[in-house]
Every structure is written in C-alpha cells, then in structure tokens.
Amino acid sequence: MDTIHDSKILNYQIDFESSKIEVKVVIEKKQVKILFEDFFAFHFEDQLPDSILLDIVEGDVNSFALDNKELLDKSKDYSWPMDYEYVEDMINYIKENSYKYYKVQASYGLNGWILAKRVLIE
Asked: Which long-range contacts (CB under 8 A, 24 or more apart) does 95-100 make?
C-alpha cells in the first residue's frame, strides 16, 4: 500500500450497520479514502490529531490471537470480539469467513488492527 505511506489521517468513520470502516487521509495534498469492507472487529490505539500512517500490512491470521493475547484475555468475558470458548474457535471462525488481519501501523499516533474481508483505496 505504497500510496498511503506517510499520509496524514484526517478522520475515520465506523459504520456498524454496513460493516465498513472508512479512513480519510491526505498525502501530497491529495485526499485518499481507505475503505475496509465487511469488518468483523477492530481495535485502535493512540488516536491523536495529525496521526501519520506508516503502512497497512496484512498479518497472518494464525498470529492474530498471539499478537493480541492480552486484549483478547481482558475482553473474552464480554464476548468481544465474539463469544467463544477456545481461541482456536475464534481463529477458525475468522478463517472460515475469509476475514483478513490488517495491521494499521503509524509513525505517529493512531495504530491498531482491523479484521475485514477486503480493503480498497480510492
């Protein structure tokens, strides 16, 4: 996703009804929209004004639970991101439903991840 490297985040919007996350960024005075479609779950940290995206990379779904162990352990009793007994059940659900693990990396500010079926850059 070279087109978004070092782009400034203007805003983001989460549409739960349509299962879409839209992130508007500006790079070289041009606005670009990053659209995550059919998302399952997301987690953002360090939301700051003038956040700068370094990259969005696709992570290995198998490493999702290990990468986010502390967060998942803390949220499991609240059925987030879903109700599951064993972490393998959640990973199987993610795989069976073709979700991809997108890591949002920042050089400054907002970072996190999104489990979604696809990402488009417009």
From this structure: 95/61, 97/40, 99/40, 99/61, 100/58, 100/61
Given a cut of 70, whether residue 1 has pLDDT beyond it is no
Burial of 70 (0-12, 13-18, 19+ CB in 10 A): exposed
DSSP string computed for 37-76: EEEEEEEEE---TT-EEEEEEEEPHHHHHHHTHHHHHHHG
| pLDDT tens-place string over residues 55-99 | 999 999 999 999 999 999 999 999 999 999 999 999 999 999 999
Report the number of distinct structural domains present in the chain: 1
Question: DSSP code of 31?
Answer: E
Owning domain of residue 44: 2-121
